[in-house]
Write a structure and sequence with these properties.
6 strands, 13 helices, about 300 residues, alpha+beta
Length: about 300
């Protein structure tokens, strides 16, 4: 039913789209992705094509045509052979959001462009939904970023890379604003369980990582209510490494208290890499599911 709705919408949109010559090269670029390679989730050709379109309605139609084409192309891959049931359940939420935006004349608009790129990445299977976060199927972090003047920190980082076979082959988590309602301790714990479940299906994945200001140890004093974001992983086998000053501005954009401390010179956001290796994460998830059973978690311990 949903697939047919996608197909019908696509046919209607293509029939009225005046930039039809942009569709084929855009889709060709998206098909060049190969499994187990790191690729930017914002496609260069499509971004350029959007920039050349003046009319907002044309831009939204283009976005819709591309994402619907990707969904239809990959539809047969959204199965238990490739995804855990809980992630497939999350995908149903994503599919319905995409359907809603495609049926809405406003589409995603400029205000939700990052949401669009991430939903397109999920339609392309570059990313998958894991609840509180969305996750890149295959990613890696820069080894150079962990090498700095602190010799002890550098040695610890290099030892970790040696023990885990390098810096590539991990899931990478990203914030996805439609799921900010799950940005709490329960939501993150559920997310970790989903990631562990996916790792059982994909034994080549080494673990997951994130790079953020909220892995900074300063949070114990600055924003103690967010300490669960680092304390739960770090108490259960994860490692964190200093990456330098945080340049995103995210740490002070959403909190008046952190902004005030920053303006007073009492807080400078720092960026940390947090990596949770697969064996440690799966062990934590299995134990967590046993003590916190729910329908969302059942498939994790099979």
């Amino acid at each position: 039913m949903l697939l047919q709705q996608f197909k019908d919408l696509l046919e209607n949109l293509k029939g009225e789209f005046k930039y039809s010559d942009q569709i084929a090269p855009t889709l060709q670029e998206l098909k060049q992705y190969q499994a187990k390679t790191i690729v930017a989730y914002q496609p260069a050709y499509m971004k350029k094509a959007l920039g050349q379109m003046q009319d907002v309605a044309d831009k939204e139609a283009f976005k819709k045509i591309v994402i619907l084409s990707c969904l239809i192309e990959n539809w047969d891959d959204f199965t238990p052979a490739n995804y855990s049931q809980s992630v497939l359940d999350q995908y149903q939420i994503i599919f319905n959001r995409i359907l809603g935006n495609c049926e809405n004349s406003d589409g995603w608009g400029e205000q939700k462009l990052d949401v669009y790129w991430k939903e397109l990445a999920m339609a392309r299977q570059l990313m998958f939904p894991a609840g509180a976060q969305i996750t890149e199927h295959y990613s890696g972090f820069s080894a150079k970023q962990g090498i700095h003047l602190n010799r002890l920190g550098t040695l610890s980082f290099l030892s970790f890379l040696a023990a885990h076979g390098g810096s590539k082959g991990y899931y990478q988590i990203h914030t996805y604003t439609p799921e900010l309602g799950r940005f709490n301790e329960q939501g993150w714990n559920d997310c970790y369980v989903h990631l562990a479940q996916m790792m059982k299906i994909n034994p080549e994945i080494k673990g997951f990582f994130g790079i953020s200001w909220f892995y900074d140890p300063q949070l114990a004093d600055i924003s103690p209510r967010l300490m669960y974001l680092q304390s739960i992983p770090l108490q259960n086998g994860a490692k964190s490494f200093y990456m330098g000053k945080d340049e995103t501005g995210n740490a002070i954009s959403k909190s008046k208290s952190r902004l005030k401390l920053y303006e007073e010179g009492k807080y400078t956001p720092q960026s940390y890499l947090l990596v949770w290796p697969r064996e440690a994460l799966i062990a934590w998830a299995d134990e967590y599911v046993k003590t916190n059973p729910s329908d969302e978690h059942n498939a994790v311990v099979n």
